[in-house]
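Consider the following assembly input.
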Amino acid sequence: MALFSVFQTTFLLALLSLRTYQSEVLSEPLPWAPESLRVFINSTHQCLHLQWSVHNLAHHQELKMVFQIEISRIKTSNVIWVENYSTTVKWNQVLHWSWESKLPLECAKHFIRMRSAVDDAKTPEQSFWSNWSSWEEVHVQNSLGHDPFFVFPKDKLVEEGSNVTICYVSRSQQNNISCYLEGVRMQGEQLEPNVSVFNLNHVAFIRETGTNIYCKGDQGDSIKGIVLFVSKVLEEPKDFSCETQDLTTLNCTWDPRSDTGLLKQLSQSYTLFESFSGKKTLCKHKSWCSWEVAPESQEMYNFTLTAENYLRKRSVHLLFNLTHRVHPMAPFSVLFTDVSATNATMTWKVHTTGNYYTLLCQVELYGEGEVIQRNVSVEVDGKQLFGGLKPDTEYRAQVRCANANHFWKWSEWTRQNFTTAEAAPSEAPDVWRNVKSVQGHSVVTLFWKPLSKLQANGKILFYNIVIENLDRSSISKLLSIPAPANGTELNLDQCLYQIHVTANNSVGTSPASVIIVSGDPGNKEVEEERVKGMEDGFSLSWKPQPGNVTGYIVEWCDHPRGPLCDLQWKSVGPTTTSTVVSSDAFRPGVQYNFRIYGISTERVPYLLEKKTGYSQELAPSDNPQVVMSNLTSRSFTLSWKDYSIESQPSFIQGYHVYLKSKAGQCHSGSEKAVLSDDAVCCKYRIDNPKQKTFVVENLQPESFYEFLVTPYTSVGEGPHGAFTKVTTPDEYSPILIRIILPMVFCILLIMIICYLKSQWMKEKCYPDIPDPYKSSVLSLIKSKENPRLTIMSIKDCVPDSIEVLNKQEGTRKSLTETESSKATYLYLLPTEKSYSGPGPCICFENFTYNQAASDSASCGHVPVAPVAPLSQLGLLTSPENLLKALEKNYMNSLGEIPAGETNLNYVSQLASAMSGDKFILPTNPPEPALCSEYKMQMAIPLGLASPPSSGSSSLSSVTLLDEGEHYH
Amino acid sequence: MQLQYQGSPFSDPGFSAPELQLSSLPPAVVSFKTWHALDDRERLSHAQGAFLALTQHLQLVGDDQRDLNPGSPMLLAQIRAARLRAQGLLGNMAAIMTALGLPIPPEEDTLGVVPFGASAFERKCRGYVVTREYGHWTDRAVRDLALLKAKYPG
């Protein structure tokens, strides 16, 4: 047992020693462990560069080894990257390894360590890992400045769609920093207390000058930011092709595709590499590059075009034979020789591209509406003959060439123009005439149409006109009219003439156009027929002529309303009896007249038919100017004689006369019509367009009417514009006017005569101082009736009288004599309203005629009123004084007038004898202050004579006062 | 105008970052009391020094923008025009100082070695600061010269 124990102990010890040995062997450093590990930082590319060496390698010894590299972030335990790097290690070699960090290196601390193992079949016993090297710490933040915070990475260039990580590093943890991408705030995550990280996924291209990302603190810190340059993905060049024009220079072109959208300094470059020669060239342009062909005759070329920028590289390849890529230069010295009216020879030269090349050239000739194409094989000079050309025509020729053996591309066109020579005109001009007879002569206007370019064969210089008198064949005349005239006027007599017209250019004369002209214009009267125009013109047809006709001519004016008419014609063959006349000048609403002539075999034109029509009829735009006449109380006449039917925009079929009246009654011959403004009126219809008068009848006197005359056509009426207003007179006024007007005239005449003979009239009828002996009126009466009345004698005098009539009311009426016994003033005062019968009569003696007469007054029972002295006159100006005066003068002498209604009747002093009239004073005068003045015809002493004056101060006046309140 | 080419935040409406300064460029902002208390020599020498610095900084900004905005010839032309105007004003101020008998400060390199190696964003920032200060100094120079004109009429 003890032995077993010893053995067991020994075994355990041996085992222990073995383990110890083994552990000693294992812990021994590997002879080729990485040493001198150094870490370099490239912030721009966010790269860590590791550099280390392996010692103890024998001279010239090479050993395949594996280096395991471990990278931690923030702390060593946070391993973010492990990579095995295999390489062959040589003696004294410094090894390199790089790692690009997604996170900018400034954002966090990084720790790197590595270990190695031999991965070589020659030393399999060494194939286990060495010890880890010590951690190498990379802490870029230490080298930053003193700003409050920083943003990383700086100015990064990425491709569109890639992911980018950005961070800010703050000096202070208290800083609250916000970061923005193009103004939009970004959401980040905190990496460390003072570091936040922002992950941008699939970044987009915004602009060529980069995308701004910036951060700012909330404590007024300045902004910090970076510019992220986002590039579009570099694409492979497309359509890469090389060719040569002269076998000395290759020109390679390609399509660079879409732009990467980067600044020029960041943009891609293009490199051309030829593998057979091993030559390489950096292209200066983005889409093409020149390559010098090697002088030694290299035929095959293998090109590689590489597009490259900071992020990507793209290549395309091209293998070709140089002779199959010949793109000849454009031909030159294109000339035309032996150019005639119909033929020309074209020559040209080509650039030589080698002695053994044949070119295929393509020649094209463009004339007026024709193309001639030829293919010519050319070595040095080309030549081509063209025939069948048109005279005086400009042709455009072009030529291009290509390699005849190995067609690659046509050269550019080389163009040259030439014009063929002129030839004599091929056709006779189309001639027509217009004949007018003026004073026994024929004025013939010849018209001809210019020849078309195809017919003229050159520039027409003049027209020759030969006038041949057929009646006297010996006489002929030649006129030469220079071009571009298209007509001329001839004065001919009534003979028959044959006129030849030819067109001439520099080469020759055209065939002649012959027309016969006679004194008779041939415009016999034929009926005019209406035709309807169509969109493309007028379709005219006529009856075929039984005799021999060489053709027909349709004649019309393009501008029938214009002063020049612009005569047009159209010639058709003898078998044609219809044609369509069209013209750009045809306008809607214009009447066109067509005349169709037949041309006899003797070439004499004669009128066959007339047609007239509108290309499109339009409704009349104007109404006639209507004149109204014969206005009576029952009718009036409308007239529009000046209205021209021919100058209207359509055929006038008649007229409508609209009549508006207040009564709204329409008489026979008219019908009710409702206008566009809903007004109702009577419509008269006139179906004859030539009837241009109309009598509107059955009207009411002294009524208001409105009328309108408008033409109507197949396309409508004229405008319903302004109606003309008229008021019928009354029935009697014309008669009255016939009477009154002469009467007024006569009265006026009399008044004028009276005015002119006023002095004479005055002397005769009412002289200032009447003298009965001189009164011609009285003398007239006397001579005819009673010669005794020539001079009124005293005994013939019938005194005036005033009758005072009693009234039922007992108001006392009195006439008082003034205190002055000489007063001669009498005032007659009306008292009551009605006359109630006879009453006491007061007779005044009238001293009308002379003093003597007044002195011997004997008539009546009323004493003579004495003449009042002048000093009393002032009292009479007031009614009260007047009243008193009356009372004093007459009350005493008359005594008391019986009570009752009283009135005063004044009887003219002439009345009883001459006419017996008497005046009855108005009992109730309508005018309250009526004051009639009676001018007593009495001679007064010369000392008291004074000019007659108005007013109460007049010396000889009797005043009728109407003021009842002053009379009691 | 210059800001419109730089992108956000510079091109944002109403963008202002007064905290952004350049140590090599004297700020134009000054209190009215201090400004008014300046004597002629100080006033003119401050402006003269500022515009001297501005001409050099505008040259730097022009170079920056040629890299950052090569496709904007109008912007580059405006910066060049601004620099020429600053130089012209500098010459006029030297003439005024000579007329007033004031010493003209020697021309010195205000930029030093600062500008090179700046990031694109930093170059945009300093472009902003230089153009902003150019505007401020132009306004201040107008007021400076108006004051002097009032002081020395005719």
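Chain A touches chain B at residues 151, 154-155, 180, 182-183, 206-212, 214, 220-227, 229, 263-265 (CB under 8 Å). Ask yourself how this observation constrains the way the partners meet.
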